[in-house]
Amino acid sequence: MSRYPRLGALLGALALASTQALADGDRTGVPLLPAYTQECASCHTAFAPRLLPASSWQRVMGNLSRHYGTDASVDAGTQRTLTEWLTANGAGGGKRAEAPRDDRITASAWFGREHREVAAATWRHPAVGSASNCTACHTRAAEGSYREREIRIPQGVSR
């Protein structure tokens, strides 16, 4: 008999919760950096850093004056802080490690696989707008969470 029966029960519960979280797709990663949310989420979803590899984040942050057709320049200190945080927390391996075309999350192979059942018309629906509007369906995308159980398809959007 264990000398610490409560510790064993606690560790078992934590293991079960971790297994369930992984099964539910809980890959939220690190909490979003407030400066990142302040600067980037003022124009678009503050995408979780793990959605792109570090090499993509370096290119994105190195070209803020022409950020996908917009000048998103920030002061040098903020740029350095954000770049360091994004590259440190970017995708490190697995299916997200390969840099997508034009460093676009929506052009990545893993994004295509995860959204293969989404019809092209869905991305053009007024409630969605584009594939980069994660918050249209992922209710906690702004917090960096993309769990399947948190998906809510907007009314009027066919599956």
Q: What this model shows, in words?
A:
This protein is mainly α and 159 residues long. It has six helices and no strands. The chain has helices at 5-23, 34-40, 54-62, 76-89, 109-114, 120-124. Helix 3 (54-62) runs antiparallel to helix 4 (76-89). The chain is globular, with a radius of gyration of 18 Å. The model is unreliable at 4-28 (pLDDT under 50).
Characteristics:
159 residues, globular, mainly alpha, 6 helices
The tally of domains stands at: 1
What is the number of beta strands? 0
| Proportion of helical residues | 25-40%
Q: Can you tell me the overall shape?
A: globular
The major sheet is characterized as: none
First-last Cα distance: 54 Å
Question: What order do the SSEs take from the amino end to the carboxyl end, as H and E?
Answer: HHHHHH
Brief summary of the model shown:
The chain is an all-alpha fold and 159 residues long. Helices cover 38% and strands 0% of the residues.
What is the secondary structure topology, with strand pairs?
Elements lengths: L4 H19 L10 H7 L13 H9 L13 H14 L19 H6 L5 H5 L35
